[in-house]
Amino acid sequence: MTALSEPLVRRAPDAPSAGLRVDDLHVAISRGHSIIDAVTGVTFDLERGETLGIVGESGSGKSLTLRAAMGALPRGAEISGGDILVDGDVMKPDQRRPHVAMIFQDPLGALNPTRRVGRQIMDAALSREGVTKKQAAERALQLLKDVGISDAARRMRMWPHELSGGLRQRIMIAMALATDPEVLLCDEPTTALDVTVQDQILGLLDQIRRERNVALVFVTHDLAVVANLCQRIAVMYAGEIVEVGPAAEVLTSPKHPYTRALLDASITAEVRPFRPIPGLPPDPTTFTDTCRFAARCGFATDSCRTVPTTLGVGAHVSNCIRESELALETEGVAA
Ligand SMILES: Nc1ncnc2c1ncn2[C@@H]1O[C@H](COP(=O)(O)OP(=O)(O)OP(=O)(O)O)[C@@H](O)[C@H]1O
Hints:
Elements: E1 20-31, E2 34-46, E3 51-55, H1 62-70, E4 77-86, E5 89-90, E6 100-103, H2 107-110, H3 117-126, H4 133-146, H5 152-156, H6 165-178, E7 183-187, H7 195-212, E8 215-220, H8 223-229, E9 232-237, E10 240-246, H9 247-252, H10 257-264, E11 317-318, H11 323-334
Parallel strand pairs: 3-8, 3-9, 6-7, 7-8
Antiparallel strand pairs: 1-2, 1-4, 4-5, 9-10, 10-11
Helix pairs in contact: 3-4, 3-6, 4-6, 6-7
The site of adenosine-5'-triphosphate has 15 residues, from helix 1.
Protein backbone atom coordinates (compact mmCIF):
# COMPACT_ATOMS: atom_id res chain seq x y z
CA MET A 1 0.00 0.00 0.00
CA THR A 2 1.60 3.31 -1.07
CA ALA A 3 1.41 6.33 1.22
CA LEU A 4 -1.20 9.01 0.58
CA SER A 5 -0.05 12.30 -0.94
CA GLU A 6 0.11 15.47 1.15
CA PRO A 7 -3.05 17.57 1.54
CA LEU A 8 -3.32 20.63 -0.70
CA VAL A 9 -4.14 23.07 2.08
CA ARG A 10 -2.39 22.48 5.38
CA ARG A 11 -3.99 23.83 8.52
CA ALA A 12 -1.84 26.16 10.53
CA PRO A 13 0.10 24.15 13.14
CA ASP A 14 -1.50 26.20 15.92
CA ALA A 15 -5.07 25.80 14.55
CA PRO A 16 -7.34 24.04 17.03
CA SER A 17 -7.71 20.36 16.31
CA ALA A 18 -11.05 19.61 14.66
CA GLY A 19 -13.37 17.56 16.76
CA LEU A 20 -16.96 16.51 16.40
CA ARG A 21 -19.35 16.44 19.31
CA VAL A 22 -22.94 15.29 19.03
CA ASP A 23 -24.71 16.44 22.16
CA ASP A 24 -28.13 15.12 23.17
CA LEU A 25 -29.25 14.97 19.54
CA HIS A 26 -32.94 14.54 18.74
CA VAL A 27 -34.07 14.09 15.13
CA ALA A 28 -37.76 14.35 14.25
CA ILE A 29 -39.36 12.92 11.13
CA SER A 30 -42.70 13.80 9.62
CA ARG A 31 -45.12 10.97 9.02
CA GLY A 32 -48.35 12.07 7.46
CA HIS A 33 -49.67 14.81 9.73
CA SER A 34 -47.56 13.92 12.76
CA ILE A 35 -43.97 14.63 13.76
CA ILE A 36 -42.16 11.90 15.69
CA ASP A 37 -38.74 11.72 17.29
CA ALA A 38 -36.78 8.94 15.54
CA VAL A 39 -33.45 9.77 17.25
CA THR A 40 -33.58 10.65 20.94
CA GLY A 41 -30.75 11.96 23.07
CA VAL A 42 -27.73 10.66 21.13
CA THR A 43 -24.41 11.91 22.49
CA PHE A 44 -20.87 11.06 21.39
CA ASP A 45 -17.60 12.75 20.59
CA LEU A 46 -14.61 11.92 18.55
CA GLU A 47 -10.89 12.33 18.74
CA ARG A 48 -8.66 12.62 15.71
CA GLY A 49 -7.12 9.34 14.58
CA GLU A 50 -9.95 7.39 16.19
CA THR A 51 -12.67 5.28 14.57
CA LEU A 52 -16.08 5.11 16.23
CA GLY A 53 -18.38 2.38 14.94
CA ILE A 54 -22.13 2.92 15.22
CA VAL A 55 -23.96 -0.40 14.97
CA GLY A 56 -27.57 -1.44 15.24
CA GLU A 57 -30.41 -3.03 13.32
CA SER A 58 -32.08 -1.38 10.38
CA GLY A 59 -34.19 1.59 11.44
CA SER A 60 -32.33 2.24 14.72
CA GLY A 61 -31.48 5.80 13.67
CA LYS A 62 -27.84 5.39 12.62
CA SER A 63 -28.15 7.19 9.28
CA LEU A 64 -30.27 10.02 10.65
CA THR A 65 -27.68 10.58 13.39
CA LEU A 66 -24.83 10.72 10.90
CA ARG A 67 -26.69 12.92 8.46
CA ALA A 68 -27.66 15.29 11.23
CA ALA A 69 -23.99 15.48 12.23
CA MET A 70 -23.11 16.33 8.61
CA GLY A 71 -25.93 18.84 8.21
CA ALA A 72 -27.41 16.72 5.43
CA LEU A 73 -30.71 15.38 6.76
CA PRO A 74 -33.14 14.04 4.16
CA ARG A 75 -36.36 15.88 3.36
CA GLY A 76 -38.93 15.21 6.09
CA ALA A 77 -36.34 15.00 8.87
CA GLU A 78 -35.04 17.80 11.10
CA ILE A 79 -33.01 18.32 14.26
CA SER A 80 -35.55 18.79 17.06
CA GLY A 81 -33.11 19.09 19.94
CA GLY A 82 -29.46 19.01 21.00
CA ASP A 83 -26.34 20.37 19.35
CA ILE A 84 -23.72 19.45 16.78
CA LEU A 85 -20.37 21.03 17.60
CA VAL A 86 -17.36 21.20 15.28
CA ASP A 87 -14.14 22.54 16.79
CA GLY A 88 -16.29 23.55 19.78
CA ASP A 89 -18.59 25.73 17.65
CA VAL A 90 -22.32 24.97 17.58
CA MET A 91 -23.40 24.37 13.97
CA LYS A 92 -26.68 25.53 12.46
CA PRO A 93 -28.68 22.46 11.23
CA ASP A 94 -27.79 22.85 7.54
CA GLN A 95 -24.54 24.79 7.91
CA ARG A 96 -21.57 23.39 6.00
CA ARG A 97 -19.34 21.64 8.54
CA PRO A 98 -15.71 22.76 8.32
CA HIS A 99 -13.27 19.83 7.99
CA VAL A 100 -16.07 17.23 7.99
CA ALA A 101 -16.85 15.05 4.96
CA MET A 102 -19.24 12.17 4.41
CA ILE A 103 -19.43 9.11 2.20
CA PHE A 104 -22.61 7.16 1.56
CA GLN A 105 -23.72 3.60 0.93
CA ASP A 106 -24.86 4.45 -2.58
CA PRO A 107 -22.13 6.37 -4.41
CA LEU A 108 -24.13 6.42 -7.65
CA GLY A 109 -26.92 8.33 -5.91
CA ALA A 110 -24.41 10.71 -4.30
CA LEU A 111 -22.46 11.47 -7.50
CA ASN A 112 -23.71 13.94 -10.09
CA PRO A 113 -24.63 11.80 -13.16
CA THR A 114 -24.13 14.72 -15.55
CA ARG A 115 -20.55 15.56 -14.56
CA ARG A 116 -17.37 13.59 -15.27
CA VAL A 117 -15.87 12.12 -12.11
CA GLY A 118 -12.62 14.09 -12.44
CA ARG A 119 -14.60 17.35 -12.54
CA GLN A 120 -16.47 16.34 -9.40
CA ILE A 121 -13.25 15.73 -7.50
CA MET A 122 -11.92 19.08 -8.81
CA ASP A 123 -15.11 20.81 -7.60
CA ALA A 124 -14.54 19.35 -4.14
CA ALA A 125 -10.91 20.58 -4.14
CA LEU A 126 -12.02 24.03 -5.33
CA SER A 127 -14.33 24.31 -2.33
CA ARG A 128 -11.17 24.93 -0.28
CA GLU A 129 -10.23 28.58 -0.12
CA GLY A 130 -7.24 29.67 -2.20
CA VAL A 131 -7.11 26.60 -4.47
CA THR A 132 -6.65 27.37 -8.19
CA LYS A 133 -8.21 25.39 -11.04
CA LYS A 134 -4.80 24.07 -12.07
CA GLN A 135 -4.05 22.92 -8.52
CA ALA A 136 -7.48 21.29 -8.28
CA ALA A 137 -6.92 19.36 -11.53
CA GLU A 138 -3.52 18.12 -10.38
CA ARG A 139 -4.98 17.26 -7.00
CA ALA A 140 -7.88 15.29 -8.54
CA LEU A 141 -5.43 13.21 -10.59
CA GLN A 142 -3.22 12.59 -7.57
CA LEU A 143 -6.19 11.65 -5.39
CA LEU A 144 -7.40 9.09 -7.92
CA LYS A 145 -3.99 7.47 -7.65
CA ASP A 146 -4.07 7.76 -3.84
CA VAL A 147 -7.34 5.87 -3.61
CA GLY A 148 -5.96 3.07 -5.76
CA ILE A 149 -7.45 3.90 -9.17
CA SER A 150 -5.12 2.90 -11.99
CA ASP A 151 -5.13 4.62 -15.38
CA ALA A 152 -6.19 7.74 -13.49
CA ALA A 153 -5.96 10.24 -16.38
CA ARG A 154 -8.43 8.22 -18.47
CA ARG A 155 -10.77 7.55 -15.55
CA MET A 156 -10.88 11.29 -14.73
CA ARG A 157 -12.88 11.73 -17.94
CA MET A 158 -15.39 8.96 -17.24
CA TRP A 159 -19.02 9.36 -16.16
CA PRO A 160 -20.22 7.84 -12.85
CA HIS A 161 -22.38 5.19 -14.59
CA GLU A 162 -19.33 3.88 -16.49
CA LEU A 163 -17.59 2.79 -13.27
CA SER A 164 -18.09 -0.27 -11.03
CA GLY A 165 -19.52 0.11 -7.51
CA GLY A 166 -16.07 -0.23 -5.94
CA LEU A 167 -14.55 2.41 -8.24
CA ARG A 168 -17.44 4.78 -7.56
CA GLN A 169 -16.90 4.42 -3.84
CA ARG A 170 -13.19 5.20 -4.36
CA ILE A 171 -14.26 8.32 -6.29
CA MET A 172 -16.45 9.35 -3.34
CA ILE A 173 -13.49 8.85 -1.00
CA ALA A 174 -11.28 10.91 -3.33
CA MET A 175 -13.91 13.69 -3.30
CA ALA A 176 -14.01 13.58 0.48
CA LEU A 177 -10.20 13.72 0.65
CA ALA A 178 -10.15 16.66 -1.76
CA THR A 179 -11.65 18.78 1.01
CA ASP A 180 -8.84 17.71 3.40
CA PRO A 181 -11.27 16.54 6.10
CA GLU A 182 -10.35 15.92 9.70
CA VAL A 183 -13.57 14.04 10.39
CA LEU A 184 -14.93 11.51 7.89
CA LEU A 185 -18.47 10.21 8.35
CA CYS A 186 -19.07 6.87 6.61
CA ASP A 187 -22.63 5.60 6.20
CA GLU A 188 -22.39 1.89 5.38
CA PRO A 189 -19.90 2.63 2.58
CA THR A 190 -19.17 -1.03 1.83
CA THR A 191 -22.59 -2.68 2.26
CA ALA A 192 -23.33 -2.76 -1.47
CA LEU A 193 -19.88 -4.09 -2.43
CA ASP A 194 -18.61 -7.65 -2.74
CA VAL A 195 -16.39 -8.96 0.03
CA THR A 196 -13.00 -8.46 -1.68
CA VAL A 197 -13.77 -4.88 -2.71
CA GLN A 198 -15.23 -4.27 0.76
CA ASP A 199 -11.93 -5.28 2.38
CA GLN A 200 -9.98 -3.00 0.04
CA ILE A 201 -12.21 0.00 0.82
CA LEU A 202 -12.01 -0.67 4.57
CA GLY A 203 -8.21 -0.90 4.26
CA LEU A 204 -8.16 2.43 2.43
CA LEU A 205 -10.32 4.15 5.06
CA ASP A 206 -8.11 2.83 7.83
CA GLN A 207 -5.02 4.07 5.94
CA ILE A 208 -6.63 7.53 5.70
CA ARG A 209 -7.29 7.50 9.45
CA ARG A 210 -3.68 6.55 10.26
CA GLU A 211 -1.82 8.72 7.77
CA ARG A 212 -4.07 11.79 7.94
CA ASN A 213 -4.98 11.46 11.60
CA VAL A 214 -8.61 11.69 10.55
CA ALA A 215 -11.46 10.81 12.93
CA LEU A 216 -13.78 8.25 11.34
CA VAL A 217 -17.37 7.48 12.23
CA PHE A 218 -18.40 4.23 10.66
CA VAL A 219 -22.08 3.29 10.54
CA THR A 220 -22.79 -0.37 9.82
CA HIS A 221 -24.87 -3.32 10.90
CA ASP A 222 -21.89 -5.63 10.31
CA LEU A 223 -20.15 -6.43 13.60
CA ALA A 224 -17.20 -8.03 11.78
CA VAL A 225 -16.46 -4.66 10.19
CA VAL A 226 -16.45 -2.76 13.47
CA ALA A 227 -14.39 -5.47 15.16
CA ASN A 228 -11.58 -4.95 12.65
CA LEU A 229 -11.79 -1.22 12.11
CA CYS A 230 -13.02 0.59 15.20
CA GLN A 231 -11.47 1.56 18.50
CA ARG A 232 -14.84 2.44 20.04
CA ILE A 233 -18.34 1.17 19.41
CA ALA A 234 -21.71 2.79 20.06
CA VAL A 235 -24.66 0.41 19.84
CA MET A 236 -27.94 2.02 18.77
CA TYR A 237 -31.38 0.59 19.34
CA ALA A 238 -34.70 2.28 18.63
CA GLY A 239 -33.29 5.78 18.23
CA GLU A 240 -30.88 5.83 21.17
CA ILE A 241 -27.42 4.65 22.17
CA VAL A 242 -27.84 1.69 24.51
CA GLU A 243 -24.14 0.89 24.99
CA VAL A 244 -20.85 2.58 24.18
CA GLY A 245 -17.29 1.61 24.97
CA PRO A 246 -13.92 0.40 23.70
CA ALA A 247 -14.50 -2.02 20.79
CA ALA A 248 -12.70 -4.99 22.33
CA GLU A 249 -14.68 -4.66 25.58
CA VAL A 250 -18.06 -4.16 23.94
CA LEU A 251 -17.51 -7.18 21.70
CA THR A 252 -16.21 -9.51 24.43
CA SER A 253 -18.01 -8.23 27.56
CA PRO A 254 -21.19 -6.53 26.37
CA LYS A 255 -23.14 -4.74 29.09
CA HIS A 256 -26.49 -4.54 27.32
CA PRO A 257 -28.61 -7.59 26.41
CA TYR A 258 -29.22 -6.05 23.00
CA THR A 259 -25.49 -5.99 22.25
CA ARG A 260 -25.34 -9.62 23.37
CA ALA A 261 -28.24 -10.45 21.10
CA LEU A 262 -26.56 -8.66 18.17
CA LEU A 263 -23.40 -10.67 18.77
CA ASP A 264 -25.36 -13.93 18.96
CA ALA A 265 -27.14 -13.00 15.76
CA SER A 266 -23.89 -12.29 13.96
CA ILE A 267 -22.94 -14.98 11.50
CA THR A 268 -19.31 -14.18 12.27
CA ALA A 269 -19.70 -15.23 15.92
CA GLU A 270 -17.14 -17.99 16.37
CA VAL A 271 -17.99 -19.25 19.83
CA ARG A 272 -21.68 -18.55 20.24
CA PRO A 273 -24.30 -20.36 18.18
CA PHE A 274 -26.11 -18.20 15.63
CA ARG A 275 -29.36 -16.97 17.18
CA PRO A 276 -31.44 -14.35 15.35
CA ILE A 277 -33.05 -11.72 17.60
CA PRO A 278 -36.75 -12.59 17.96
CA GLY A 279 -39.32 -9.91 17.23
CA LEU A 280 -38.90 -6.51 15.61
CA PRO A 281 -37.58 -3.16 16.87
CA PRO A 282 -40.36 -0.75 17.94
CA ASP A 283 -41.60 1.94 15.61
CA PRO A 284 -40.61 5.51 16.64
CA THR A 285 -44.30 6.28 17.37
CA THR A 286 -44.10 3.89 20.35
CA PHE A 287 -40.76 4.98 21.87
CA THR A 288 -40.84 5.19 25.68
CA ASP A 289 -38.36 6.51 28.25
CA THR A 290 -38.17 2.98 29.73
CA CYS A 291 -36.18 0.19 28.09
CA ARG A 292 -37.18 -0.02 24.42
CA PHE A 293 -35.64 -3.49 24.08
CA ALA A 294 -37.59 -5.01 27.00
CA ALA A 295 -40.23 -6.61 24.77
CA ARG A 296 -37.54 -8.67 23.01
CA CYS A 297 -35.18 -9.18 25.93
CA GLY A 298 -34.77 -12.53 27.68
CA PHE A 299 -33.45 -10.77 30.83
CA ALA A 300 -36.25 -8.22 31.22
CA THR A 301 -38.18 -8.00 34.47
CA ASP A 302 -41.17 -5.82 35.41
CA SER A 303 -38.82 -2.98 36.44
CA CYS A 304 -37.49 -2.79 32.89
CA ARG A 305 -40.96 -1.77 31.76
CA THR A 306 -41.45 0.90 34.43
CA VAL A 307 -38.05 2.42 35.34
CA PRO A 308 -36.70 5.08 32.92
CA THR A 309 -33.29 4.33 31.45
CA THR A 310 -30.26 6.61 31.21
CA LEU A 311 -26.90 5.99 29.63
CA GLY A 312 -24.23 6.21 32.32
CA VAL A 313 -21.08 8.31 32.06
CA GLY A 314 -17.78 6.51 31.64
CA ALA A 315 -15.53 4.66 29.21
CA HIS A 316 -17.82 1.63 28.83
CA VAL A 317 -21.45 2.17 29.77
CA SER A 318 -24.93 0.93 28.93
CA ASN A 319 -28.46 2.05 29.75
CA CYS A 320 -29.57 -1.39 30.99
CA ILE A 321 -30.97 -1.05 34.52
CA ARG A 322 -30.04 -4.70 35.13
CA GLU A 323 -26.44 -4.28 33.95
CA SER A 324 -24.80 -5.41 37.20
CA GLU A 325 -27.13 -8.41 37.65
CA LEU A 326 -26.43 -9.35 34.06
CA ALA A 327 -22.69 -9.24 34.71
CA LEU A 328 -23.13 -11.56 37.72
CA GLU A 329 -25.21 -13.97 35.63
CA THR A 330 -22.51 -13.97 32.96
CA GLU A 331 -19.81 -14.68 35.54
CA GLY A 332 -22.00 -17.49 36.90
CA VAL A 333 -22.22 -18.99 33.43
CA ALA A 334 -18.48 -18.66 32.90
CA ALA A 335 -17.59 -20.21 36.31
N1 LIG B 1 -36.57 10.82 5.27
C1 LIG B 1 -37.28 10.14 6.17
N2 LIG B 1 -38.61 10.37 6.32
C2 LIG B 1 -39.34 9.70 7.22
N3 LIG B 1 -38.85 8.76 8.03
C3 LIG B 1 -37.54 8.48 7.95
C4 LIG B 1 -36.69 9.14 7.01
N4 LIG B 1 -35.42 8.65 7.15
C5 LIG B 1 -35.50 7.72 8.14
N5 LIG B 1 -36.75 7.61 8.62
C6 LIG B 1 -37.20 6.71 9.71
O1 LIG B 1 -36.39 7.03 10.84
C7 LIG B 1 -36.01 5.84 11.52
C8 LIG B 1 -34.49 5.73 11.57
O2 LIG B 1 -34.00 5.59 10.24
P1 LIG B 1 -32.45 5.48 9.88
O3 LIG B 1 -32.35 5.47 8.38
O4 LIG B 1 -31.68 6.51 10.60
O5 LIG B 1 -32.09 4.05 10.46
P2 LIG B 1 -30.76 3.19 10.23
O6 LIG B 1 -30.40 2.65 11.55
O7 LIG B 1 -29.73 4.00 9.52
O8 LIG B 1 -31.30 2.03 9.29
P3 LIG B 1 -30.54 1.32 8.03
O9 LIG B 1 -29.46 0.48 8.61
O10 LIG B 1 -31.64 0.53 7.40
O11 LIG B 1 -30.05 2.43 7.14
C9 LIG B 1 -36.70 4.69 10.80
O12 LIG B 1 -37.91 4.41 11.48
C10 LIG B 1 -36.97 5.25 9.42
O13 LIG B 1 -38.11 4.65 8.84
